[in-house]
Write a structure and sequence with these properties.
By secondary structure, the protein is of the alpha+beta class. It folds into two domains: 177 residues, 3-Layer(bba) Sandwich (FAD/NAD(P)-binding domain), CATH 3.50.50; 140 residues, 2-Layer Sandwich (D-Amino Acid Oxidase, Chain A, domain 2), CATH 3.30.9.10. It is built from eleven helices and 20 strands. An eight-stranded mixed beta sheet has the order 6-7-5-15-16-17-14-18, sandwiched between helices. A six-stranded mixed beta sheet has the order 9-2-1-13-20-19, with helices on one face. The chain has a three-stranded antiparallel beta sheet with strand order 3-8-4. β11 and β12 form a beta hairpin. The longest helix has 18 residues. It is globular and about 65 Å long. The chain starts with 8 loop residues before the first strand and ends in an 8-residue tail after the last helix.
Length: 393
């Protein structure tokens, strides 16, 4: 077997996180290879609904909320650049999002969410039943109220993944599908590359961006990553006319329109390991929630159903930063927000890998939070005192 050429950076995982990072590194003139155990972008990145909703997903003020809002801010430019470079027309819409309350308990939850965001200085609009039905006539006429988030939206995730993949190829990134990484190799504490079922790939910079499979890779002498899969089942239908104009949230699920008239119904969160089966129980849960939100969907035409595995970290935050080994980097654990956070993750991680810069927004997500060790900032500062750039290529 011929030797694989040495790369400036090897990325383990060809989902939207790995591909977006590869694109960003290539734009910074790095030689990059992406190693994917299956086909590029065919796991969680293609299985989601493409919701871009940092405000709706926000549980509390904190570092994740800050990262989500920063990610949404740069999204339009990201999609525009990917589309322009790849030639892929990407269905992307700031459609607005309605979070609907169908009973008094859900209404109280909306009140709590509004108060929380008001305290953060974020304006939220409460709509009456009539106001809600006026802008989205297909919703349940028995709804009580809704919160309106005008800046939320969606992207067709499958089109986006294809666009970023083609953009990477345009920029000279080497994409290697059906390439399972067996081990990260190191000499002493220094990364030298990875061993795969297709031979050894050499590089002194390796990024683990393997989604739900990241926790299966030993990433250093201390421990593996505390990342596990969360199954999410989905359904796609062709909705009745007139179609939905907004992303719709309810207490048990969501509805996401597409420009071609489809509606995506989701989703479950199930702790079943690496089982990607679609179950009747899951489909029943999803469709019941969908019909409660929009009764007209009873007459919709079934198109397809599927399941994906979201990477969930034990503390609910992504893992972003340098690992135990010199030259090892981690970008995983995005759970439900991988698509939204892909552009900001790519920019932050590329800045870290190329320039050794750890921006403040990245600090809460560093891998070192899982065990007692010098922080990534301390490590960088120590290396600078030794007179060398810790992440030069």
């Amino acid at each position: 077997m011929a030797a694989n050429p040495t790369q400036d950076v090897l990325i383990v995982g060809g989902g939207i996180i790995g591909l977006s990072l590869a694109q960003e590194l290539a734009l910074q003139k790095c030689r990059v290879a992406v190693l994917e155990r299956g086909q590029m972008g065919q796991e969680a990145s293609s299985a989601g609904a493409g919701i871009l909703a940092p405000r709706a997903e926000m549980q509390e003020a904190g570092p994740l909320a800050q990262l989500l809002l920063a990610g949404r801010k740069i999204y339009p430019e990201f999609v525009s650049e990917v589309s322009g470079r790849s030639g892929v027309r990407i269905d992307f819409s700031i459609s607005g999002l309605l979070w609907v309350a169908l009973d008094l308990e859900q209404l109280a939850e909306l009140d709590r969410k509004k108060q929380q965001q008001t305290e953060l200085g974020l304006a939220v609009q409460t709509l009456s039943r009539d106001e809600t039905l006026r802008i989205e006539s297909g919703l349940n006429p028995e709804l009580l109220s809704a919160l309106y988030f005008p800046e939320e939206g969606y992207v067709d995730n499958r089109e986006l993944v294809r666009g970023v993949e083609l953009s990477c190829l345009q920029l000279g990134v080497r994409l290697v599908p059906e390439c399972e990484v067996l081990a990260v190799k190191a000499e002493g504490n220094k990364v030298t590359g990875v061993e795969t079922n297709s031979g050894f790939f050499a590089s002194d910079r390796v990024v683990i961006a393997a989604g739900s499979w990241s926790g299966q890779l030993v990433t250093g002498p201390r421990s593996s990553l505390p990342v596990k899969p969360a199954r999410g089942q989905m359904v796609a239908v062709k909705g009745p006319e007139p179609g939905l104009r907004h992303v719709i949230y309810g207490s048990l699920g969501y509805l996401v329109p597409r420009g071609d008239g489809r509606v995506l119904l989701g989703s479950t969160v199930e702790w079943v390991g690496y089982d990607k089966r679609v179950t009747l129980e899951g489909l029943q849960e999803i469709t019941a929630s969908a019909v409660s939100l929009a009764p007209a969907l009873r007459a919709s035409t079934f198109i397809e159903c599927w399941a994906g595995l979201r990477p969930f970290c034990e503390d609910g935050l992504p893992v972003l930063g340098a690992g135990d080994l010199d030259g090892l980097y981690i970008a995983t654990g995005h759970f439900r927000n991988g698509l939204l956070l892909a552009p900001i993750t790519a920019k932050l991680m590329a800045d870290l890998i190329v320039a050794g810069h750890v921006p403040k927004i990245l600090e809460p997500f560093l891998p070192g939070r899982f065990h007692s060790q010098p922080s990534q900032i301390e490590n960088v500062q120590a290396k600078k005192k030794q007179g060398r750039n810790p992440a030069s290529l």
